[in-house]
Structure formats: C-alpha cells, structure tokens
C-alpha cells in the first residue's frame, strides 16, 4: 500500500500529542504513576510507528506487500493498547489488556523482522 508511510507517520503524531498530554498531566499533578504507560505509548506509538513509516518510505517494495498491511494493523493495535494496558496494570486495575497487547506488540515486531530480512535488497541497494 503506497500510503503506508503516511498512515504510520500521521498516526504517530497523534500518539505523540496524547502522550505529551499525559506527560504534562503527570508533571502538573506531580503524580508519576503513569510514567510507564506514557513511556510505552510514546515509544511504540510515536517513535516505533514513525520509524516504520520511514522504513516503508525507504523501501517501497516492502510497502507494496500484503504482509506490510498486516504489520500496520498489528503495530497500530499494539501501540494503541500497550500504553492503556500498562496504565491499568500499574494502577492495580488488571493485567489482561497489557498481556494481550504485549503479544500483539511482539508479533508485530517478529513480522517486521521478517519483512526487513525478506526485502533486504531494498535496504542494501543504493
Ligand atoms: C510534553 C512532553 C512531555 C512531558 C511533559 C513528559 C513528562 C514526563 C514525566 C513527568 C515523566 C515521569 C518521569 C519519572 O517519573 O521519572 C516522563 C517519563 C518518560 N517519558 Fe515523557 N514527557 C513528554 C514527552 C515524551 C516523549 C515525546 C517521549 C518519547 C518519545 C517521552 C518518553 C518518556 C519515557 C521513556 C519516560 C520514562 C522514563 C523513565 O523510566 O525514567 N516523553 N515523561
Ligand atoms: C512486548 C512489549 C513490551 C512489554 C510487555 C514491556 C514491558 C515492560 C515492563 C514490565 C517494564 C517495567 C515497568 C515498570 O517498572 O513500571 C518496562 C519498562 C520500559 N519499557 Fe517496556 N515493554 C515492552 C516493549 C517496549 C518497547 C518496544 C520499548 C521501546 C521502544 C519499551 C521501553 C521501555 C522503557 C523505556 C521502560 C522504562 C520506563 C518506565 O517503566 O518508566 N518497552 N517495559
């Protein structure tokens, strides 16, 4: 899908805005209990999603595969749920969402590793 970089990077900005909102809330309230939730939201939602977008922009042949679209949905679902999942866990409201989400996050990274190695010529080429 040619618009994959747009979706990855576009959504990453929204994760950053929400994550910064939580960061400012933590700083203002002087209650840092949500630091881990904030960290995972920002690193998976903003940093990882933006990096995925840049990768697919650099290696368009990989972006054209159906697996890349599966990767997009796994990465998005994982980024969307790990922050809230960790937030629920650290505030004692249950670990189910964090557990399910961590499997999705891991699967998305395994799939990304496969995509990178399967399309290694795309990164090796000048
Ligand atoms: C408006 C912007 C932001 C504010 C106000 C903010 C605020 C905070 C606060 C108050 C903490 C808790 C610190 C502690 O308890 O030790 C924290 C932790 C953290 N933030 Fe942010 N943050 C912001 C943006 C970001 C961004 C953009 C990222 C990543 C790209 C990020 C990554 C992290 C990480 C990884 C931690 C955990 C650090 C640790 O474990 O010590 N933050 N942030
Ligand atoms: C399967 C996915 C993941 C799981 C289950 C997981 C789980 C955890 C746990 C249990 C902690 C300790 C939290 C605490 O002490 O409160 C932690 C800390 C941390 N993780 Fe992850 N993590 C995952 C993925 C990632 C990824 C992909 C990144 C970065 C791209 C990351 C960055 C961090 C950072 C910076 C911290 C320390 C920040 C903090 O807890 O305040 N994690 N993670």
Number of strands: 0
The percent range for strand residues is under 5%
Shape: elongated
With helices defined by DSSP (H or I, 4 residues minimum), what is the helix count? 6
What Rg is obtained from the alpha carbons, in whole angstroms? 16 Å
Class computed from helices, strands and strand pairing: mainly alpha
**Can you summarize the main beta sheet?**
none
Q: List low-confidence stretches.
A: none
The distinct bound ligands, ions and cofactors come out as: protoporphyrin IX containing FE
How would you name the oligomeric state of the polypeptide chains in this document? single chain
Distance between the termini: 22 Å
**Helical percent range?**
over 70%
Number of domains: 1
H/E element string? HHHHHH
Question: What integer is the average pLDDT?
Answer: 97
